[in-house]
Design a protein that fits this description.
Number of domains: 1
CATH superfamily: NAD(P)-binding Rossmann-like Domain
Distance between the termini: 20 Å
Radius of gyration: 17 Å
CATH class: Alpha Beta
Shape: globular
Amino acid sequence: MSSADPVPTTLVLTGATSGIGEAVARLLVPRAARLIVHGPRHPTEVDRFLGRLRDLGRSEVHYVQADFDDLTAVVALAGRIAALTDRVDVLINNAGRPGPPTRQLSDDSNELTLQTNYLAPVLLTDRLAVLLRAAHGRVVHVASATHLSASLDPDDLNMEHTAYSPTVAYARSKLGLVAHAQWLVDQAPSPRVDAVSVHPGVIRTALLHAMFDIGGAPVAQGARNVVQAALSANAWDGRYLAEDRPAQPNPAALDPEFRSRLMTQTSRLTSHLSANDRSSSAGWDGS
């Protein structure tokens, strides 16, 4: 996002119908000409939520539905977004899930936490590359400080040979996002796309309760940290933010070899999609 254009035209927010995402949507709706919000629920189930958003500002508000358990739905989501706008100034990948009690597979035969929290946002980002580049846009990955303790083997993303636990699966998925933000700023040609990953804080949400059964700060505090990452005029250059300030990420995220291996295996896990729909980073090659 260019510092000369601090008020974005089009914002896309995933996971907008609950928790931090809902609070972020409320803060964004007065700030953009067009706000595209995503959630997993049928549009008729979110009418009241959308009405409240529209009451908060003059933004053009659109709702797009997709289940991240199915990567073809993510591809379709990107298509629906492209039908609504010719640019994306900011993409906030907020949608996420806690790790289930036991290892489960998605519709695409990927470990469920990995797919929802990592593969789906990476695929969506890739499919929106042209729209992001058109706006000199920014990608915001909502990450977690849990990634700092994670160990992620790119050759075992689906935890077939890694001992499973819900917290391990969650932390690994967030390490993937932090590394992807770094990778994006290295790969994106001119016009350049900025990227940042942000730990919003230990926030009192259903996800936090499901994973750790602890308290936390108010949702509004986490939402403010995400919005700052999204709307700051400063270029983040792939940095990791701990709440409202830059911090050192897991060293793996800074390792170019790790990032390259991670993206190679990420593409492999989406190889069942058609050639036109595959997350092959084609959107960043300047074509």
